Amino acid sequence: MIKSTxxxxxxxxxxxxxxxxxxxxxxxxxxxxxxVEVISDAPVQRxxxxxxxSQAGCAVLGDVGFAVCGISVLGFEDNVGIVKCWHTSVSQTxxxxxxxxxxxxxxxxxxxxxxxxxVKGAQIKFLQKGN
Amino acid sequence: xAANNPNSIETGQSNQFDCSVQSNQPVQSKRYFDYVSVNLxxxxxxxxxxxxxxxxxxxxxxxxxxxxxxxxxxxxxxVDSFFKKFGFTDVIxxxxxxxxxxxxxxxxxxxxNGDGAVRYYNGIExxxxxxxxLHSLIRKERPNADFIAVRSSDEKVIRAAAESPEADLVIPxxxxxxxxxxGSSNLHVSAGQINHIVAKIARDRKTAFxxxxxxxxxxxxYRRSKLFSDCMEMIPVLxxxxxxxxxxxxxxxxxxxxxxxxxxxxxTLLGLSREESAKxxxxxxxxxxxxxxxxxxxxxxxxxxxxxxEDLQD
Lengths: 131, 314
What we know:
Chain A: One of its GO terms (cellular component) is cytoplasm. Helices cover 31% and strands 31% of the residues of chain A.
């Protein structure tokens, strides 16, 4: 009798990095995308915003809490952007954004414009093409 | 167009966020309340005056008498649009007892009397040293105020405020200016304590408890974590006795303002459930305002006795 065994697809590249097959969609963590707007006197740079998010996240939630929330900045330009987090930690993520008072030496307000399940949804619903 | 190409965001391509955030919030049918200082109105108007390129309006010479109807209208429009952008429908403007003396007091009065998209209420924030002073101040200010809040970290004053049926909100956190560090002010904050007796009294007298973001934004490090832990201790007691808990911004200047989403998130960080924190920015303040409105119009005769329709009066 032949037993069927599942062999994961392993690809060894030239750099000898092993790439596992991606997780099934049902096993992946669900994500939420928060559209944010930064209100400030001068434009805020992308790198400064990313650094401020991680700094505020660690200050408010702690290193472990920040890791649990899965917060990352997807894109940021012209003082608007999208912040990603796991669907269980939307409130904590908005809480972190709330406590961002200074970015790159200037006072700011970080406003959560809305939360969506997809990047496209966040853009269409909350971020409008410049008019 | 960025909206049609969501994957391009993750690649970090440029020119995909050359867009403006929509001014209208997704949910506008719900009423969202905030509790801000009149100093914020002053700050907003000063910023607006700086931005105005009018020849006849000089910010140094601004006086309430100098503001003509057009200027007044533009300032009130500016304040309205600010709160609308954040998604608020109702704003309680609090001030200390006494007359509000400012260059922009005309704007303040026109906001209170106006009937724009955002409704404004006259709030008084009382900070008393002892119970007697508290009672006398409440008695003095109640007839003129839509909303009375008591801020104290003294247990006796907190209990007296919870017992008073005339007080609407108790804020058990006080702050005083501290030495500035690294360009940011570091407040001296202290939080009071409550027990089950105070919570029971507050529930029976329909007095709400509130936590404002301002002292949390102005502190950091150990002070903020201590403040968090002190406030977090009160939440389970208040929840156990179903005392309404409001989460408010308490903004004093432009950069302290936060939206309803942020206030809700602040509530969940304190330990409230999502439903409770959502009620804390919408339902609970609406109930307080409505109850006071009914009392002032004579619809509520006594505690538990209310005239429901005009027909019953006849």
